[in-house]
Amino acid sequence: MLRQRIASTLLRAEQASATSRPCLRNRHAQQKRWNTPAPKAGDGPLMARRADRELPDISQVGFRWGRTLPLFAALVAASSLAIFNYQKSSSPVIASTLYALRTSPTARAALGDEIYFKHQIPWIGGEMNQMQGRIDISFSVRGSKGTAVMRFTSRRPSSRGLFETSEWSLRTEDGAWIDLLEEGDPFRSLLAAPDDTTLPPPLDDEAARRGFRQQGALNK
Q1: Could you tell me the pTM of the whole model?
Q2: Is 142:111 a contact under the CB 8 Å cutoff?
Q3: Looking at 35-39, 118-122, 125-129, which range is the least confident one?
Q4: Is 25 among the domain residues?
Q5: Which domain, by its residues, includes 105?
Q6: Pick from 117, 194, 181: which is nearest to 154 by CA?
Q7: Which secondary-structure segment (H or E) carries 136?
Q8: What is the domain count for the chain?
């Protein structure tokens, strides 16, 4: 009987040790899970993540927009310049100067007929601020005889005053400077402010009564 008890005790001890070995292995494996390396570049998407995974290397984490941000800023600046240049090229001031060039005998003698912008997409240099009364622009023009750079400068001395042209000239390809203001200032009426209206002279009493009587007859 004693031998049977000892044998049964040893058998139970062996069974208990056999069942405890997988648990120890699992615990050991769980303790080694932190050794799983983080995904590297080119490994593909990580479908599952563990809470105890290895942290990524700080040296690999950088500013992704570091290379594309300067390019984006350059594109925004170029687009802004193109928009402002188009706004200036389509303004009534540019159209008035081109019309004045086509009708100026001096400009037609230097450039010929069909005076227009030299380039298909013109570049209008200088300042054009009609609200502040400052216009100082220049752009390239061409004709049937040659090309030149036209400059137009005009100032408004006061908010209620008219623009006064100080320079309207052409600089030809050979360096010759042509003053177009010798023929007079054709822009005085074109650059008048919208609110600068000249009131008509007052009517006499007889004309005023006659107009009132006519309006009364029409109202009947």
Answers
A1: 0.56
A2: yes
A3: 35-39
A4: no
A5: 84-183
A6: 181
A7: strand 134-142
A8: 1
